[in-house]
Every structure is written in C-alpha cells, then in structure tokens.
Amino acid sequence: MRITTNAILRNYKSNLATSMSNLDVARTQVMTQRKFNSTMEDPSSALRAAVLNRKYARNEDFLNLVKDIQSYQDAQEDAAMQINNISLNLSKHYGIEALNGTNGSIETRKTYAEAWRGAQESILLSLNASYEEKYVFAGSDGMNPPFRMTTDANGKQVLLYRNVDVTTGNLYKADGTVDTNNAAQRLEELSKDSSFVDLGFGLTLNSKTSDASSAVNVDASSAFNISLPGINLVGFGEYTNADGTTTPKNMLLLIGEIANTLKQPDFDYDKYKDLLGKFDERRSDVLKHVTTLGTNTEFLTTTADRLQTNEINLTQQIDNVVNVDMAEAIMNFSWAQYAYNSALKVGNNILTPSFIDFMN
Predict the structure, then answer these.
(1) What is the pLDDT of residues 45-86, one digit of tens each?
(2) 59: buried, middle or exposed (CB in 10 Å: 19+, 13-18, 0-12)?
(3) How many CB atoms lie within 10 A of CB 129?
(4) What are the CA-CA distances from residue 309 to residues 50, 223, 305 (Å)?
(5) 74, 88, 234, 292 - which has most CB atoms within 10 Å?
(6) Contact at 8 Å (CB) between 281 and 270?
(7) Domain that holds residue 87
(8) CATH code, domain carrying 176
(9) What tens digit of pLDDT does each residue of 226-266 get?
C-alpha cells in the first residue's frame, strides 16, 4: 500500500486538531470548574442539573419562609408573654391586696382601680402588637389594628375586635350603625379565622361544593397556620350568672368591671371575688396559648433543620452532576497539554527524507 505525503499531512492535521480540541476542553473545565458549559455537551446531565436547581431554589424559598414565620411567631409569643405577665401581676398582687384590703378607705380602692385601668391599656397595646407592619393578633387581616375600645349608647365600655363587639358579636360599621344579625356566628367565625402557609409538606386543597356555592379549603395537615386571633387569647362572649345577669368573658372587659367594682362606695366583696376568679380563668387561657406558641416554635425549628439538611443534600447532588473533580481535571489538562506538545514535535519530523534529497 502506497502512503502519499498528502495522506500523511491530512492525518496529521486531523489528529492535531483533535489534540487541540481536547486541550481546549480540558482547559475550559479547569477554568470554569464545570463538567459542561452548554446543554448540547451533556443533555442528560444538563436536564438533571436543571431539576436539582429548581428543587434547591424551592427549598431555599421554604427555608427563608420558615425563618420569617419564626420571627413572626416570636413576636406573637413576646406579646402573649407580656399579657400573661401583666395579668399575673394583677391577679397575684393588686387583686389579692385589694381583696385583703376591703376594709380600707374608698380612696385606697380607687388607687387599685387606677392600677387595673393602667394594666388594661398596657394589655390593649400588646394585643395590637405588630411585626413588619403586620398585626400579629389580627388573624387573616393583619393590615389593620385588631382591637380598639369604645363606648355604646349607654356609655358602657365596649371592646371591638375587627369592628365586632367581643361580647355580643354586633358589627360596628363605618357609618356608625350597628349590625346585630348573625352576631354569635360572627364571633365564632372570627375565632376560627386562619392563615395558612406552605412549608413544603405537600399543600393539599379540599374542594367543598354545595347547592349554592363552591369553596376550596386548605387541608390543615398539609400547611402551617400562622393565625392567632386575639379574641382567642383574651376571650370573647359572656358568662350567664346565677341571678340571670351576664359578665363579659373578655379579659380587658373583666379588668374594667373589676376597676368599676373597686370604685363603688358600697364595695361588693362577693362580686369582686367572683370577677377575680373569672379573670384568673382568662389568665389560664393566655398561658395555654403561650405554651402552644412555644410548641409551634419547636416545630418550626425542626422544620428549618430538615430544610437545611435538604439544602446540603441538594448541594452535594448538584456538585456531583455539574462540578468537576479539580484534581482529575488538572491531571486531564496536563495530559492533554502533553499530548498536544508531542503532536507539535511530531510535526517537525513528519516529512521524512525522500529520493529527491539524494539527487545531485
């Protein structure tokens, strides 16, 4: 078989181009630290990398959301603890001292009454606590202060939660009128108000259809409820006493009743003691909610740990698919460079001596 000079040159140029291409690929991998820089280089790895990156971004969103909710829950817990501490101080100090000092002058009782009134204002401020311009005890309507004090037509103190009387359930409208329809149902709906967020547990929606309308509800087991309606914390509705009279169940209104009782010239010892007992019941409910918030905080901490573990696992998977082993990449680059230099050296000797070289 005759091998011509042109055939040798063609093969040499082809092999030299291959060596140069291999050197360029090895050099690029060392510089970018990636196994591929375009989808066409490795379509399957590029697809897997895209899927992993989407999972990583979604996991990062969940993790940031959990951290934000943790801060929101901390604001709720701090405000609830403030209310609990104020109510504990009222019950264990002012309440008992006033109870033991019933034989004192009316001026002394008025002093205690003013202390109760001051605590009432402090608790109201705590109930309107906010986090990043969102009121933490307003349920799903966090943009407006949930609680405010007013008086009815008879001059009686009324506490409104989202413009609803916490005792009767009547709705105080912006035009000054009062809507008494479905009052009891209105309070129940406000107490069950929820605001769910998806923390990566597989959010599920349950569709409920009736003859008149259809609604979609969130499956509570697949999401986290960040709502804590303030009326659940300090109570709503009213007690019906043995004599047929009523007493508000709300802590702030009970404080007002206690202050009014202390100011009466003919001090009613039994009524005061009964009001103090009802106040202690409400204080126990506040403490239960504080405990629940602590449990939720532990749950969020566990969730954050799980998401951080997922983040580490996804990072390792992305690294395995996308990034090169630098030691191996440098070795491949050194070998490709050695092969290319060798090819160049071979080129110097590719044209062997011929018969022409020996002719005179």
Answers:
(1) 999 999 999 999 999 999 999 999 999 999 999 999 999 999
(2) buried
(3) 20
(4) 20, 20, 6
(5) 234
(6) no
(7) 59-314
(8) 1.20.1330.10
(9) 999 999 999 999 888 878 788 999 999 999 999 998 888 88
Burial 184-222 (b: 16+ CB within 10 A, else e): eebbeebbebebbbebbeeeeeeeeeeeeeeeeebeeeb
Yes or no: say if 83 and 233 are a contact pair by the CB < 8 Å rule.
yes
Q: What tokens were used for 171?
A: 């709705």
List the strands of the sheet with 164-165, edge to edge.
147-151, 157-161, 164-165, 171-172, 178-179
Question: Which pair of structure tokens corresponds to residue 94?
Answer: 């002012």
Decide: pTM greater than 0.85: no
Place of tokens 């129940």: 188
**Are 160 and 150 spatial neighbours (Cβ–Cβ below 8 Å)?**
yes
Could you give the residue ranges of the DSSP H alpha helices within the chain?
5-32, 43-89, 96-100, 106-127, 183-191, 230-234, 251-263, 269-322, 326-348
Q: Count of domains in the chain?
A: 1
